[in-house]
Amino acid sequence: MSGPYRYTEPPSPKSATGTAAAVWAQTATDFGIARPSTLVVLSSAPELLAPAWALLRESLIAGSGSRTDRELVAAGTSLANRCPFCVDAHAVLLHATGDHALGEAVARDRAPDDARAARLLAWGRASRVPGSPDLAPPPFARADLASHVGTALTFHFINRIVSALCTENLLPGNAQRVKAVRSLAGRSVSRVVRADHAPGASLALLGSPGPGPAWAAGTSVGPAYDALRTAATAGAALLDDAELGLVQETVARWDGSHPAPAWPDLPGRAERPGARLALLAALAPYRITDEDVAAWRVEPFTDHCLVHLIAYGAFAAVDRIESALPVPHLLET
Question: Would the pTM count as exceeding 0.90?
Fold first, then answer.
């Protein structure tokens, strides 16, 4: 497989039309990266592309509060999910905000010297554990709840997509692992990262989503979350009833831990390859192998189907985390 992608060959954004073209126009102006591979990889299933971008934009990019704070939440989430690609990306973006010491703390996986920054990073880490007592009270204001919770949930989804379907190479040759390169890459997008971005600009790409969950009431994060939930959960149709029940029951019991190498709940490739892929995507996407994909991906399954199945598994974990949020305690801040 050429380029940064595993298992699929996404369509070129240069040939995009309609909604997809509008997404790429917005990523260029609002994200500073015209065609980020984290989103390009979804374009094999284009119905996922705009909702994923919308949730990313409305929470991390246009959300209330400090962009540095949201980057720390995203970085903590990515560290908890063992997604080195995304950890590197947030280290670079922290450099872009001008917080170079924080960028290096994230890149080296060490606690920031600043106590509040350390709490935000730890809060992002804790968000992997459904119902974690460490989530309340949160280290941010009540007014910023939707943007920060939305950012964490965005990256619980994106981390899983990236770990399953992309390589770890944020830059060619993993050049981002060098401090000087991280700093330079951050400077290249600093103007866009430090700019103000009006909430809601991506919602016109979504049709008519619902208002979203209570923690996002009255914000642009809510409809974006609702749209991604609808699009991602449609991938359940790729599993039969027995497979779907197995995935749902296993994720419902998940406590946020990383599965042990000997994972008794993981079905075999020969018996239930679809359920196996979905569960790996949900709980340990970095463990997906060529053999896992090959066992499931037979005719008539395509790139579109594979991306949708992985997205379904990824969102099953997001839904488990979101449904266990201590919302009453979070709303008290």
Answer: yes
Helix axes 221-233, 145-165, angle to 10 degrees: 30
Would you say 200 and 61 are in contact if contact means Cβ atoms under 8 Å apart? no
The pLDDT of residue 1: 40
Choosing from 83, 86, 166, 305, the catalytic residue is 86
Q: Tokens 């790996």 identify what position? A: 280
Q: Which residue has the tokens 């196996």?
A: 276
- Residue for token pair 């592309």: 49
Whose tokens are 């016109």? That residue is: 204
Report residue 262: phi and psi, to 5°. Answer: -90, 100
In this structure, the number of other CB atoms found within 10 A of the CB of residue 249 comes to: 10
Convert the pLDDT of each residue in 259-281 to its tens digit: 999 999 999 999 999 999 999 99
Q: Give the model's pLDDT for residue 170.
A: 61
Q: Report helix, strand or coil for 166.
A: strand
Residue-wise pLDDT tens digits, 89-147: 999 999 999 999 999 999 999 999 999 999 999 999 999 999 999 999 999 999 999 99
- DSSP-derived secondary structure letter, 173: G
- Residue 166 known to be catalytic: no
* Residue ranges of the chain whose pLDDT lies below 50: 1-2
| The predicted structure's pLDDT at residue 182 | 81
Task: Give every CB contact of residue 48 below 8 A, 6+ residues apart in sequence.
Answer: 42, 228, 231, 232, 307, 308, 311
Q: For position 45, what pLDDT does the model report?
A: 96
Tokens found for residue 7: 């298992």
Classify 246 as helix, strand or coil: helix
Cα 48–Cα 52–Cα 54 angle in degrees, nearest 5? 120
Encode burial over 183-201: b for 16+ CB neighbours within 10 A, e otherwise: bebbeebbebbeeebebbb
Cβ atoms of 59 and 212 closer than 8 Å: no
Per-residue model confidence (pLDDT) at position 171: 62
CA nearest to 40, candidates 64, 5, 1: 5
Give the Cβ contact number of residue 12 at 10 Å.
10
Phi, psi angle pair for 209, to nearest 5°: -70, 165
